[in-house]
Design a protein that fits this description.
Blueprint lengths: L17 H7 L6 H6 L44 H24 L8 H11 L2 H18 L3 H43 L4 H11 L4 H29 L5 H6 L1 H24 L1 H30 L3 H18 L5
């Protein structure tokens, strides 16, 4: 018996969904496009929310920023659920390997008692700032409009929980639960932390979700992470036997750099949309920058001593230059 095999090419009846055809043309769509674009509910929303009857349930009017198309905010990382979870899973495996390496080789023993206390004083209260960032990003996701911007807000919320959890593990490795209790007490009562705590609480009650995004993800994170994780952990502590702490914070540094790509893209697109948007973003950024620089000053003094003013000025100038590149007039 002879069997002849031949290849049959079957042309698909359609390349993708109709709403993606209208936006991108009749061609195969990426998984990011399928999982992100034009899936924001905007019709047949039944009743207005009783707690905010002046708005629809999903309403672009919840922010003073105006966009002709809220789907302009394409995430440069193109994260949707699948790619996000796969990336974080790989990073968690790497972070676990770092923690194992530090703990099995006793690298934290290289820290002097003075520097060990310094790490606890500077890092442990930041667990509570990360929790505030989690709440703020959850609020942006709830009030925001357009899936391409609300879904990365939810991812950022979960990432901030991860930051808090890694800081918790650093504290447990340094001085068990006593370091966590000391961090909470400092966050609640130490004068050094009250300006930053006040800023976090101001953000928690900021009603305009886009202003909240500027305040938290652009300004607060844009000043805090370079100062703490680049200058203090990776530079100052590394030079004083703190390589173990630097390895344990590696995910936080890597995540901060990745987040910056996304939030910079958001600010740049919104500022480019109109002069009114740019003026509003500039006003918000200037106001929150000044508050955060003031709040970080006492923490910088504890972390860097006599170098504090120079380091904080350097970070502020770098932030101003970054904002100018995105089209803001600070």
């Amino acid at each position: 018996m002879q069997i002849d095999l031949r290849t049959v090419s079957i042309k698909p009846l359609r390349n993708t969904f109709d709403h993606l055809v209208r936006r991108f043309g009749d061609k195969p769509a990426s998984r990011y496009q399928e999982g992100s674009y034009d899936i924001q509910a905007d019709a047949n929303l039944q009743y207005r929310p009783m707690w905010e009857p002046e708005h629809e349930l999903h309403d672009p009017g919840r922010t003073a920023i105006v966009m002709a198309d809220w789907y302009e905010f394409k995430d440069p990382r193109q994260y949707y659920y699948g790619t996000y979870t796969l990336t974080r899973s790989r990073q968690q495996e790497s972070a676990e390997a770092n923690f194992d390496f530090v703990e099995t080789r006793g690298l934290l023993a290289q820290l002097s008692d003075e520097d060990r206390q310094l790490v606890i004083d500077v890092l442990m209260p930041l667990r509570h700032a990360a929790w505030g960032a989690n709440m703020n990003n959850t609020g942006m996701c709830a009030d925001g409009y357009g899936t391409v911007i609300t879904q990365p807000c939810m991812f950022a919320a979960m990432d901030n929980l991860g930051v808090a959890q890694y800081l918790t593990r650093v504290g447990l490795a340094l001085n068990d639960t006593e370091s966590l209790v000391a961090g909470r007490d400092a966050w609640m009562n130490d004068d050094m932390w009250q300006p930053l705590r006040r800023n976090v609480e101001k953000m928690l009650v900021t009603r305009d979700w886009f202003e909240l995004m500027v305040a938290q993800n652009f300004v607060a994170d844009g000043l805090l992470y370079p100062m703490i994780y680049e200058q203090f952990v990776d530079t100052r502590l590394n030079a004083r036997g703190g390589a173990g702490v630097s390895m344990m914070c590696a995910f936080i540094t890597e995540w901060s750099s990745e987040m910056r790509k996304w939030i910079d893209s958001v600010i740049k697109i919104a500022a480019k949309e109109s002069d009114a948007n740019r003026a509003l973003l500039t006003q918000w950024t200037r106001s929150w920058r000044d508050r955060n620089v003031e709040a970080l000053a006492p923490i910088a003094a504890r972390a860097f001593g006599e170098d504090a003013t120079h380091i904080l000025d350097t970070i502020t100038h770098a932030f101003n230059a970054r904002a100018a590149k995105l089209g803001l007039d600070l």
